[in-house]
Amino acid sequence: MKRLKIALIPGDGIGKEVLQEGVKVLKTIDKIDNNLFFEFEEFPWGCDYYVKNGKMMDDNGLEQLKDFDAIYLGAVGHPSVPDHVSLWDLLLKIRKGFDQYVNLREITLLNQSLTPLKDKSEEDIDFLVIRENSEGEYAGVGEWMNKGTPEEVVLQTSVFSRKGTERIIRYAFEEARRQKKSLTSISKGNALNYSMVFWDQVFNEISQEYPDVKTYSYLVDAASMYFIKEPERFEIVVTTNLFGDILTDLGAAITGGLGLAAGANINPERQFPPMFEPIHGSAPDIAGKGIANPLAAIWSVAQMMEYFHEGNWKDYIIESIRVLLKEGRYLTRDLGGKSLTTETGDRLIEILTQMVTENKSK
User: Fold this and answer.
1) SS3 letters for 142-156?
2) I need a surface site. Which of 155, 228, 307, 318 has the fewest CB within 10 A?
3) Which pLDDT score, from 0 to 100, does residue 97 have?
4) Which tens digit of pLDDT belongs to each residue from 224-247?
5) Do domains 1-101+267-362 and 104-258 have the same CATH topology?
6) Which cofactor does it need (predicted)?
């Protein structure tokens, strides 16, 4: 039996609600699959914790988390705490502290009715964005000089190391080779004449080691246009921290919205636990109303299963979401339905259980 310890950080706002539905899916898998057993431990960190304690997580929080097999995060953020504090002192602290330098976001359309793009089908929108997750524009390096004076100057410095750039691009090439798909690099080398020229150079260097992988390179503005006009161009995408953050929200917009957008934060060497999360944020305006969409949180469970080499369970979960969307009877308001968060989660579990049972009987 594979015993897996999962650290739960519900966080803020709707994070607490959607995470419960994801945990229900994990418990369902535990019940059905005799080879998997999940142990859970919940941590109360987030903005409420900050208001009470002056910090987003315990000082030794990373030490507490390091022996878990995975971290499952709900959401972070609340108007009572500045966004840069809530982001840097919890989410980014975990990403950087555990060297989760790979961020994986699947841009997959599961039902054609959900895309605002005319004449685009499920076959046209199905690609993976691999985002550098440890440095770049989010390195946190800079300076604020002459504050409050007419000579005030702010510097925000992007950091691109050879180690950091090589490892994310090489990871992307390995993934493209494994899946037998093309790889597209997205940068801005014409305007950012140091960082992005360097990125393009490293991409070209590493491409020589992978002659079997077909490659493309786009400027980020052109890529943004192609995300909308010709998403079928993309199979595997690799890009920087900032560009990946922005482009994957655009990807969510063309596949049904942030309620269906999940992200995995991975240390490929498995020296530290990964973290899985919906990327929609804490949505404090609807928190506590029971109407949040849990499907992104459940999709992140599918990513977790893939990380644990339980690909069949990932397939079951994604197909269950697909069936639920096709039924259309248990959707939350963001998808045009009237269901509560728990009703959507419960129906998905019914579909998942029935699907697995039927497949076992064949």
Assistant:
1) EEEECCCCCCCEEEE
2) 155
3) 97
4) 999 999 999 999 999 999 999 999
5) yes
6) Mn(2+); Mg(2+)
CA dihedral 199, 202, 204, 205 (to 10 degrees): 170
Rounded to 5°, angle at Cα 167 from 164 and 168: 85
Q: Rounded to an integer, what distance in angstroms lies between the CA atom of residue 281 and that of residue 257?
A: 12
Q: Are 258 and 296 in contact (CB under 8 A)?
A: yes
Q: Is the distance from CB of 124 to CB of 101 less than 8 angstroms?
A: no
Q: Where are the alpha helices (DSSP H) in the chain?
A: 15-32, 47-53, 61-65, 83-86, 92-97, 162-179, 195-207, 220-229, 241-253, 295-307, 311-327, 341-361
The widest CA-to-CA distance across the chain, in whole angstroms, is: 75
Amino acid at 268: P
Structure tokens at 22: 């994801």
**Residue 312, number of CB atoms within 10 A of its CB:** 13
Q: How many CA atoms lie within 13 A of 31 on its CB side?
A: 11
State the pLDDT at residue 155: 96
Candidates 234, 185, 182, 184; CA nearest to 213 is: 182
Q: Alpha-carbon distance 348 to 298, whole Å?
A: 9
Residue with tokens 């945990």: 23
202 residue type, one letter:
V
* Nearest of 313, 342, 341, 347 to residue 328 by alpha carbon: 347
Strand partners, 237: 129, 184
At the fourth CATH level, the homologous superfamily of domain 1-101+267-362 is Isopropylmalate Dehydrogenase (3.40.718.10)
- Domain residue extents for the chain: 1-101+267-362, 104-258
Exposed/middle/buried for 256, CB within 10 Å: 0-12, 13-18, 19+? buried
Beta-carbon contacts of 213 under 8 Å, excluding residues fewer than 6 positions away, are 173, 176, 177, 182, 183, 207
Interval 265-278 mean pLDDT = 98
- Residue 79, classed as helix, strand or coil, is coil
> Domain 104-258 belongs to what architecture?
3-Layer(aba) Sandwich (3.40)
